[in-house]
Amino acid sequence: MNRKRRLILTCTLCSNFDPNRSICRINSEVRDPISDQYAPTCKRKGDFVRYMNVLPDAYNYFSADEEIPNDFQIDLSKLPKDNDEIPLFVHTNRGIERAIPANESVTLKGHAAFGVELIYTLQGQQQLIYEIGIEKAREEANNAGVELTKIHEY
């Protein structure tokens, strides 16, 4: 059903959106990430760049005045899977994303409900650095046995 519906653009789907600070990187304005108010205008101006790792959510298929079906689920079918055939996704401030390993030495292990732990993914490490600082993120990475590889300046 989701694939047949028109995609409603939101800032969460745009590469120019900083999900940790909820701002547009182009104009530094605060944005409601799930609002459909800004992204269509940005698309018309050529400023909307689809961030392909985030998976569209219910608000990307159903407008605010539509009822979301009780059986709605985000489509995980096209995601890579781990050795146990569990889709590899990570919950971030942007939404549910395709899990990208933090570096080549990381083998991702998914959980059907919770996804991959943040510290093992590139985007998760970036979020942790923003939320808890680089030293605590490095400590968490060391405790998990993974190298902290995503250092992003804020």
Describe the structure.
- There is one protein chain.
- The protein contains 3 helices and 4 strands, in the order ββαββαα.
- The strands form 2 sheets. Strands 1-2 form a two-stranded antiparallel sheet.
- A hairpin with a 4-residue loop joins strand 3 and strand 4.
- The protein is of the alpha+beta class and 154 residues long.
The whole-number mean of residue pLDDT values reads: 93
Specify the biggest β-sheet.
2 strands, antiparallel
Helix content: 10-25%
What is the total tally of β strands? 4
What strand order characterises the main sheet?
1-2
Number of domains: 2
In the predicted model, the low-confidence regions spanning at least 5 consecutive residues are none
End-to-end separation: 39 Å
Anisotropy-based shape: globular
Order of helices and strands: EEHEEHH
Query: Which class best fits the helix and strand makeup?
Result: alpha+beta
Q: How large is the count of helical segments?
A: 3
Radius of gyration (CA) equals 16 Å
Strand content: 5-15%
